[in-house]
Design brief:
alpha/beta; 12% strand; Rossmann fold; 2 domains; G protein-coupled receptor binding; GI Alpha 1, domain 2-like; 344 residues; GTP-binding; seven-stranded mixed sheet; single chain; globular
Amino acid sequence: MGTCLSAVANSERRKCQLRSKEIDRQLSDAERQERNVIKILILGTGESGKSTLVKQMKIIHNDGYTKDEMRGFREFAQQILNCNRYYDEFTTLIPNVVTALKSLWKDKGIREGVARGFEYELNDSALYFFENMTRITADKYIPNTTDVLRSRVRTHGVVETEFKVESLVIRMYDVGGQRSERRKWAQCFDDVRALLFVVAISEYDMTLIEDPNRNRLRESFQLFSTFCGSVYFKFTATVCMAGYWEDNCPQLGLLFLNKLDLFREKILFTDRQLRYFVPEYRGPDRDCDAAALFIQHRFDTMYNQNKRVFSHFITATDTSNVKEVFQSVIQTIVKENLRQSTLI
């Protein structure tokens, strides 16, 4: 009897040991897999281009959008033709409105007015959609990739996008940038490897939708300054593009100065010079490089003096430009990931 009980006990003990080893193996595998997961949190004010960057990652790394997904952007593309500044209010483009729009678009004055839409804060992509109006208002219209990139979809809450780059799994978290959405930022910092702050430098002459008395660039200045001084970023190295990583820093920081194409057009071809909206600028008018570098320097001086700030100018709607930029970013992340894995 005792021998039988002993055999049963030994059998149960072996089963427990095997289960324990299996659990340890699963935990080890999960830890190893998680080590290859890079979480990137994207922050910035509303309409700075955060969501466009996320769309580009899907196009570059996830084989783009399916036809069904493309159809989902149809109403957003058509909504821009309504010139509706508040993107939560959808209005159907009824046939007589389409006819009227096409008639108006034949007028030279209307065309010139839309081309100067930045003077009254018309959507950045309004000119593009008006020029493609016939295609976009067709009954069987399905947006193409460029339409999707130029469609404005306001972000509510936190939107997660996942894609693979070599052996890494990248998870990007796009957080709404309007003031009402920013209280949600704090809950997103756990286990984040890289923090990406996006600024639309072309909006130096524009005001916030939620506060028409507040300049958008100044809002970005203040937000970035507050962000850099917060506890969430206290021990983070700020790296915007180049291969720099400060030892013992748990996070990688990125700063993208976006909408360089629109910025260049305003500085070179309009009278809306930077000094009229940011009096601190003392550089020459119609000098895109001088104006852009001034803005870059303003952001650089807001960060901890003991750390370097690497920034990168970008046009988020340009897929080749975004691809090149993120290749450099991923190389830096891969290098740090390997270092932490004691492989280099």
